[in-house]
Amino acid sequence: MKTTEAMIKQGYWLFHYRSYLPIILILFSLACIWYNKTLYSYESIWFDMGCLLIAICGEIIRIIAVGYSADKTSGRNTKKQVAAEINQTGIYSIVRHPLYIGNFFMWFGISLYTRIWWVVAIFLFIYLLYYERIIIAEEDYLTGKFGEEYALYASKTPCIIPNLKDYIPNKYFFRARKVLRKENASLFGLIVVFVLMEIFQDYAHFQKINLELHWQLIGILGTTLYLVLRLLKKRTRILHNERQIQKNLKEEQ
Questions:
Q1: Rounded to an integer, what distance in angstroms lies between the CA atom of residue 84 and that of residue 189?
Q2: Among 78, 103, 100, 138, which Cα is nearest to 25's?
Q3: How far is CA 60 from CA 53, 121, 183, 249, in A?
Q4: Domains of the chain and any CATH numbers
Q5: What local confidence, expressed as pLDDT, does residue 245 receive?
Q6: pLDDT value at 117 more than 90
Q7: pLDDT greater than 70 at residue 109
Q8: CA separation for the pair 67, 178 (Å, rounded)
Q9: Worst-scoring range by mean pLDDT, 45-54, 139-148, 183-192?
Q10: Coil, helix or strand at residue 110
């Protein structure tokens, strides 16, 4: 098997199981925090908020990509690749894989929060190998489905490093309901990870849980937002897209 073919095969496999990578990274980070417990003898709200801000910047990139993307694209599916069309405007006109850039900043902020330089280095190495293969597999799928159209798009749009001068205005309006529906769990998961790591840091060094006020407020606000949006998604049509609303109305008639 050729190297490229092997990487494509690995990429499809990693795409299918990509939901497990965060769990592995979190468990690894917690183990490293416990091993290096003397690092957490001091607290700094500025460091805390700096790491969280980096991670939130990643979520903002995801929000922009998802909010302006076409339906049945930029999804969280893991069973198979799905793409109804090629997103080529807005953020997708300056870089081909904005969602993976967003994921990078989210997990970079988390890795920095461990305060262990070699954890950050390991994260960067794993992220590079992991998403390199997923990107290769994704582009193999898109090339197979869209052929010359995707080849032309890929030839003029960089893979990871944005090229701002080639920006094309968004084809679609920003759809806030789509973002709230799809990114609610991602944002909540981000907050949970930070709060969990802060609790673990405190317990590792002080043998007690002493969660600072700012983390308490962030945890409460994040949980409240998540539960409200989840309730709206399950019990109402507020967060449904227009097609889903029309489908539901037809079923009730």
A1: 28
A2: 103
A3: 10, 24, 10, 33
A4: 3-72+83-252 (1.20.120)
A5: 43
A6: yes
A7: yes
A8: 6
A9: 139-148
A10: helix
Rounded (10°) angle between helices 117-146 and 148-156? 140
| pLDDT of amino acid 108 | 95
Phi and psi at 18, nearest 5°, equal -65, -20
| CA diameter of the chain | 65
Contacts of 163 (CB under 8 A, 6+ apart): 94, 95, 157
Global pTM value: 0.86
Return the ∠ at Cα 79 (arms to 106 and 105), rounded to 5°: 10
**pLDDT one-digit tens code per residue, 66-106:** 999 887 675 555 555 666 788 999 999 999 999 999 999 99
Q: Other CB atoms closer than 10 Å to residue 29's CB: what's the count?
A: 23
Rg (CA), the chain: 20
Rounded to whole angstroms, the Cα distance separating 102 from 182 reads 14
Could you read off the pLDDT of 171-207 as tens digits, one per residue?
889 989 889 988 999 999 999 999 999 999 988 888 8
- pLDDT confidence of residue 18: 78
Q: Which residues contact 245 (CB under 8 A, 6 or more apart)?
A: 237
Tokens 């902020």, residue?
109
User: What tokens appear for 183 in the block?
Assistant: 């990114």
CA-wise closest residue to 182 among 223, 131, 239, 138: 239
| Angstrom distance (rounded) from CA 91 to CA 220 | 32
What's at 102, amino acid-wise? G
Q: How far apart are CA 222 and CA 59, in angstroms?
A: 14
